[in-house]
From TrEMBL:
<protein>
    <submittedName>
        <fullName>Alanine--glyoxylate aminotransferase family protein</fullName>
    </submittedName>
</protein>
<comment type="similarity">
    <text>Belongs to the class-V pyridoxal-phosphate-dependent aminotransferase family.</text>
</comment>
<dbReference type="InterPro" id="IPR015424">
    <property type="entry name" value="PyrdxlP-dep_Trfase"/>
</dbReference>
<dbReference type="InterPro" id="IPR000192">
    <property type="entry name" value="Aminotrans_V_dom"/>
</dbReference>
<keyword id="KW-0032">Aminotransferase</keyword>
<dbReference type="Pfam" id="PF00266">
    <property type="entry name" value="Aminotran_5"/>
</dbReference>
<dbReference type="InterPro" id="IPR015422">
    <property type="entry name" value="PyrdxlP-dep_Trfase_small"/>
</dbReference>
<feature type="domain" description="Aminotransferase class V">
    <location>
        <begin position="30"/>
        <end position="284"/>
    </location>
</feature>
<dbReference type="InterPro" id="IPR020578">
    <property type="entry name" value="Aminotrans_V_PyrdxlP_BS"/>
</dbReference>
<keyword id="KW-0808">Transferase</keyword>
<dbReference type="InterPro" id="IPR024169">
    <property type="entry name" value="SP_NH2Trfase/AEP_transaminase"/>
</dbReference>
<keyword id="KW-0663">Pyridoxal phosphate</keyword>
<dbReference type="GO" id="GO:0008483">
    <property type="term" value="F:transaminase activity"/>
</dbReference>
<dbReference type="InterPro" id="IPR015421">
    <property type="entry name" value="PyrdxlP-dep_Trfase_major"/>
</dbReference>
Length: 380
């Protein structure tokens, strides 16, 4: 299989040391006591990455498993859950809430803007009787970034615990679980963390544990039951055999992040994100979002007369570059460049923009300026 140049908003490119870590010889992770320490230490390093002292767990399934596990563990029949929705992932939380018997109550925002805090406040002043709330940090299909730093304290003040999907933001954007009072924070291996898909990880606050422990009905299911793990270390017991090679890879990726330093990593994304947006605008294209731009993904409106699929095929077949379209209500309307994690490098984005400009011209769209030149003007 010839692997193209992956510039999608996840999965992202994976560094060699992460790939090699996955090839290391493995022990029996159920029985070998060393692995319990390795797992615990890896969770602690993820906690460092998330800026939290809360318990962290790595679950064996990609990003979506974390979203479902949070809803499965918190929701009981008839619970009212606030679903904050300004995008496809935001809205999607309602499905998990309903699946486990909850009543999803939407707060809907403009899909081209970040969540309006004063409108949310007004809404909460009228109705704040919710067991928990769900919110997406970066809603990847549109590239909108929500201010979870302000939203979560607002909810917590009213006694509402929060589930935050930061799968596509953490690592590329500031993310401070304890300072922002996030009860369950969700991440995945395949976005800015830059490991292959296969793992989700999450932090769980004492308040969230308390809600789970005070349920009237036990949590339905096993894989999605976050209580099963409560004392794995003390008991030296895992609910199922751990995917040890995936965890070795994730550990190497987390170590890469801690070695670079979070601040450096966030600044790298700021610079790349902002230069990419300028390169798009100054060459005559339009961004999809009107405010709340994520620095991990740029979502570009497809110009009139250009076919989304043909454009992406040209990038892939003629230049070997894989970018993404979108889905749901955005299908065929936008293209997405994922510059998160290992993708957020000047050389990688430059080549992607070169391929984009050539492919646009091939579709008959004339750019007003040289995309790479504009990008480099703002990055170098
Ligand atoms: C990628 C992503 C996930 C993980 O799920 P996928 O199966 O990779 O789609 C969850 N939430 C968000 C916001 C994501 O971008």
């Amino acid at each position: 299989m010839k692997v193209p140049y992956i510039m999608t908003p996840g999965p992202t490119q994976v560094r060699e040391n992460v790939r090699l870590a996955r090839a290391l010889e493995t022990t029996n992770p159920d029985l070998d006591i060393q692995f319990f320490d390795f797992y615990k230490e890896t969770c602690e390093r993820i906690g460092q990455f998330l800026n939290t002292k809360n318990e962290v767990r790595i679950l064996s399934g990609e990003g979506i498993l974390g979203l479902e596990a949070a809803c499965a563990s918190l929701t009981e029949k008839g619970d009212r859950v606030l679903v904050i929705d300004n995008g496809i992932f935001g809205e999607g939380f309602a499905d998990f809430v309903k699946m486990y018997g909850g009543e999803a109550v939407f707060f809907k925002g403009d899909r081209q803007k970040k969540i309006d805090l004063s409108a949310l406040k007004e809404f909460l002043d009228k109705d704040s009787d919710f067991k928990y709330a769900t919110i997406v940090h970066c809603d990847t299909p549109s590239g909108v970034l929500n201010e979870v730093d302000k939203i979560c304290p607002l909810l917590k003040e009213r006694g509402i615990i929060t589930v935050v999907d930061s799968v596509a933001a953490m690592g590329g954007e500031e993310f401070r679980v304890d300072d922002w009072q996030i009860d369950i924070a969700l991440g995945g291996s395949q976005k800015a963390v830059s490991a292959p898909p296969g793992l989700t990880f999450l932090s769980i606050s004492d308040d969230a544990f308390q809600v789970m422990e005070n349920r009237k009905e036990p949590i339905a299911g096993f894989y999605c039951n976050l209580l099963v793990w409560k004392s794995y270390y003390k008991d030296k017991w895992f609910p199922y055999t751990q995917p040890i090679s995936d965890i070795l890879g994730l550990r190497a990726a987390i170590d890469n992040i801690l070695e670079e330093g979070q601040e450096n990593m966030i600044n790298r994304h700021k610079k790349i994100g902002s230069a990419t947006r300028k390169a798009i605008i100054e060459t005559g294209l339009n961004l999809y979002i009107k405010d709340g731009y994520a620095n991990t993904v740029t979502v570009i409106q497809i110009p009139d007369g250009v076919d989304d699929k043909k454009l992406r095929d040209c990038m892939l077949n003629d230049y070997g570059v894989f970018i993404a379209g979108s889905f749901g209500y955005l299908e065929g309307k936008v293209i997405r460049i994922g510059h998160m994690g290992e993708n957020a490098r000047i050389d990688k984005v430059s080549y992607t923009l070169f391929a984009l400009q050539r492919s646009l011209e091939n579709s008959g769209f004339k750019c007003k300026d040289d995309m790479v030149k504009v990008f480099l003007k703002y990055t170098c």
